Amino acid sequence: MGSKKRPFYRIVAADSRFQRDGRFLEICGYYDPMKKPYNLQVEREKVINWLRKGAQMTDTVECLMRKEGIVQEFNNEKESKKSSKKPNKAAESKDKKTTVDVASEDAKK
Hints:
Strand order of the largest sheet: 3-4-5
Largest sheet: 3 strands, antiparallel
CATH architecture: 2-Layer Sandwich
Low-confidence stretches: 104-109
Mean pLDDT: 78
Distance between the termini: 63 Å
Shape: globular
Radius of gyration: 22 Å
CATH class: Alpha Beta
């Protein structure tokens, strides 16, 4: 967005199958680099919600989100979920039963 020599960016959640500047799923904020200091408005909950769903950030957006502390917040949330779900390995090995079938189609005939 913006005009010649006046950039203005929207931060959006977009499907990779659509055009780069085409359809998007949701606007999560905007970035105006022309103001000093730059103006960055982000809806934290929307961004974190999309990251939980598996969205990937571009390098530029990730840099901006790091400055806002959103990436660290999301990583801390992920780490706390990992540590709370971590079961005892001894109990896990007893419960785990796997079957591996390596017979090929020729062996079945």
